[in-house]
Amino acid sequence: MAWGILEDTKMEQVPGTAAMNDQSDIPREYDQVPHEILKHGTGRLSHVILVPQPTDSPNDPLNWSIWKKDGILLIVGFSAAVVGAFGPMLSPGFVQIAGELNISVNTLAQATAWLILTIGLSLFITQPFAKVYGRRPVFIVAIIIMFATSVWGALAKDYNSFLASRVVSGFGMSPYEVLVQCTIGDMYFVHQRATRIALWNLFLLCGITGGSLVSGYIIEDIGWKWTFGICAIFFGVFMFLVVFFVPETAYIREPVTARYHHEPPKIVSESEKPDQNLTEKEVSSSSTPPQTVAPISTSAEPKDPYLRTLKFTTGKRYTDAPFWKIVVRPAVIFWYPAVLWAFLIYGTTLTWIVVFSVVNASIFTLPPYNFSVSEVGLISLSPFVMTIIGEVIAGPLNDFMCLYLAKKNHGIYEPEFRLVLMVPVFILGIVGFFGFGASVHYQTHWIGPVLTFGLANMSMAFANGCVFGYVIDSYEDLSEEAFVAINARNLLTFGLTYFVNDWLVKDGVLNVFNVLGGVFIGVTLLTVPLWVYGKKLRGMVARNEMLTRFMKD
Q1: Would you call 39 helix, strand, or coil by DSSP?
Q2: Which residues of the chain have pLDDT under 70?
Q3: Given this model, what pLDDT does residue 268 score?
């Protein structure tokens, strides 16, 4: 038992638990593999066993250069930033735009709610397609939809056309709710993921907050339709980058034990060794010479030429499971304890933050603040800065804590180590949600609500690394299904944003944010039993043979 985490006494190798240091207690999945051929990191990470273990193929995304991996992440990350801005970018001008469209502010807010609902429902289409046919075709179609609906929104003549453009855009936005995290899981090792997840969240959350920051000036100076026009320009550039520089990252990788002969080891000559130049520089073999093993090398697979990587799809199926089963799986995995916890944490925290965007114009354009549209947009400077600070700290700190705790735990890594940073999430969220309601209610200086708005967003920056890191590490093979289940939070967001302005008028900002803060506390405290019983619960799920057969390909 490590730091209160209860062991599963009925299962020796619990899914998610992994050996990250070169110790004698290698997990069962590596029992038949000679320890000396397990691949390790290099330099200060030379003691870390790479999880998952890469093949020797140059086409394995785990073996791509770190520059190529990070380049792909930057492209989809910047795309996610603009997608993040696309949803709330009109919020600073809600009062002005509602007047121009001859509708109420609440009706305009409901347009955002319908957009969010479309995102949540379309995930059940885009995710199964990406699971079966790969990430690349989904990314390409999504960015084309975003470009087309941005042009549509800019040219919309009335509310019905405007609403239709928003609803259709949800189909293009939905892949960025799931596939970026899955792409990170495709390309990076366990000890690298939290930093990259933090980077993705930095893009997404800065897009959400920074978009409102910029759009306030756009709406005030050149009109709200130009928010769509500028998005169309960005998505046009991203279309080019995605098509030419984002190859397929899904890869069919044999289990570690299937890659090596299960026979007495023999000496392998220099000429028979796999070409180590084909793998990423970071990947190296153990410090023990590997001449005593006979790998079934996959390095004979030729490197795909660049033109082949430009194909819309690879023509492969990345799962043998029927399509209907992949559609149903998110509803099943939703009830896995780890995924249900992730849904509650991510769903409540992000939904509560979306509420800020929906109500800010109604609060700050009225006395005692009397902000202009551009000044309402400037409120987002606080969450923008706080998000950057939070992500810069959270990602590396999460990876460091995992490596540190694994080292103290005799080289055994538990996904629960990701949960340590829920402590700052708890503190920041309490100050953010309760503080915002109180400062607005008691009409403090504008610094009060603006600062607490930023702290609430900082809590989200820390929470994302915990949530997605924990789910990826616990159920790596089912990460796509898990992310769809987690993003069922869009249904929660839809419901709250649909009526929150009416609720605000009826009960007042103090009561609204006291309720949100209380729910946040209750949900966040569920992390304590998950820390204690998480490993046992992972084992319990893995021992259910019928469930395992259904969820596995």
Answers
A1: coil
A2: 1-2, 19-36, 259-300, 553
A3: 43
Looking at residue 55, its pLDDT comes to 87
Helices (H), 66-158: 66-86, 94-101, 105-133, 135-155
Whether the link from the prior residue into 255 is cis, omega within 30° of 0, is no
Burial class (CB in 10 A: 0-12, 13-18, 19+), 330: buried
What pLDDT was estimated at residue 181? 82
Q: What's the number of CA atoms in the CB half-sphere (13 Å) around residue 396? A: 5
Query: How many angstroms separate the Cα of 200 from the Cα of each of 48, 371, 384, 387?
Result: 24, 32, 14, 12
| Dihedral (CA of 53, 55, 56, 59) sign | negative
Angstrom CA distances, 81 to 75, 373, 374, stand at: 10, 22, 20
The two three-digit tokens of residue 502, written as one number: 């009416």
Cα 408 from chain centre: 28
Structural contact between residues 295 and 274, judged by C-beta atoms closer than 8 angstroms? yes
3-state secondary structure of 283: coil
Residue 213 and residue 205 in contact, taking contact as beta carbons nearer than 8 Å: no
The pLDDT of residue 32: 64
Query: 523 is written with which tokens?
Result: 């949900």
In the numeric block, which tokens belong to residue 542? 């893995």
The per-residue pLDDT for 291 is 44
For residue 359, give the nearest of 489, 463, 513 by alpha carbon.
Answer: 513
- For residue 48, list its beta bridge partners: 21
Tokens of 130: 């990406």
Residue 377 near residue 217 (C-beta atoms within 8 A):
yes
The answer to whether 542 touches 13, Cβ cutoff 8 Å, is no
* Helical axes 447-474 vs 190-222, angle rounded to 10°: 140
Sequence length of the chain is 553
Distance of CA 367 to the CA centre of its chain: 38
Contact 507, 389 (CB under 8 A): no
**Residue 501 in contact with residue 453, Cβ under 8 Å?**
no
Residues 66-115: pLDDT tens digits? Answer: 999 999 999 999 999 999 999 889 989 988 899 999 998 889 988 989 99
Determine whether 76 is exposed, middle or buried from the number of CB atoms within 10 Å of its CB (0-12, 13-18, 19+): buried
Separation between Cα atoms, residue 53 and residue 56, nearest integer Å:
10
Q: How far apart are CA 471 and CA 484, in angstroms?
A: 12
C-alpha span between 215 and 374 (Å, rounded) = 8
The residues, any chain, with a CB within 8 Å of residue 366's CB and separated by 6 or more, are none
